[in-house]
Amino acid sequence: MTHPERITDELELIKRHVPVQGGHLLDLGCGSGDMTRRLVTEGGAASALGLDIEAAVPVQAAPVAGVAFRAGRAEALDLADASCDGVLMLKSLHHVPVDHMDEALAEVARVLRPGGALYVSEPVARGPFDEIMRNFHDEAQVRAAAQDALRRVGALRVMEDFIFLSPIAFPDFASFERRMMTLPTLVQPITPQMRQATEDAYRERAAADGSFSVEREFSVKVMRRP
């Protein structure tokens, strides 16, 4: 069995599997919009549209030619049929309501051109990082639902299915708290009890100097429209 590849920049991985150069791309669940911009500025895409819920749509301080952001939902894309060369869902499918995941993937298939690619990367719900996170943000069920939805897609053909490793590190618990315990995707307030359980779990897994580092697992499926 081949050991998973260690990836520090997912754009390089995306370019291997998606027609980025000269393509018209959709970044579903774009978050900060950093990857959306890089698809054009570094990947050579002709255009990249970042879509997210209204509260999360990034504001462009310095607009980039070919890059646009829009509020919307994956299960109801306001895009023409066969208008995209590639669609990215980077750690975002599990944020789609479970009851709408099938609709969202059907919409992706609709907007992809024949031969176009869907690239989905999802966190794998195991390992020490997730053992810490689940004290205040347990995504195991929705991540499993996302994988089930991908297995049900009939309009797209699976071309690649693999795991990669991505390093993540924190110098101390305060850094972990700032980065991970203020995420906009948190579904519930963090109680003092949750915070204490999280800190305890962090310290149990941290090095003697308080730092914590790990290589997280992410699963990738690359699917094409025939």
Automatic annotation (TrEMBL):
One of its GO terms (molecular function) is methyltransferase activity. The keyword Hydrolase does not apply. InterPro entries: Methyltransf_25, SAM-dependent_MTases_sf. GO terms for biological process: methylation. It holds the Pfam family Methyltransf_25. Residues 26-116 form the Methyltransferase domain. Keywords: Methyltransferase, Transferase. Gene3D superfamilies: Vaccinia Virus protein VP39. It comes from the Bacteria. PANTHER family: 2-METHOXY-6-POLYPRENYL-1,4-BENZOQUINOL METHYLASE, MITOCHONDRIAL, METHYLTRANSFERASE. This is Class I SAM-dependent methyltransferase. It comes from Xanthobacter dioxanivorans. The lineage of its organism: Bacteria, Pseudomonadati, Pseudomonadota, Alphaproteobacteria, Hyphomicrobiales.
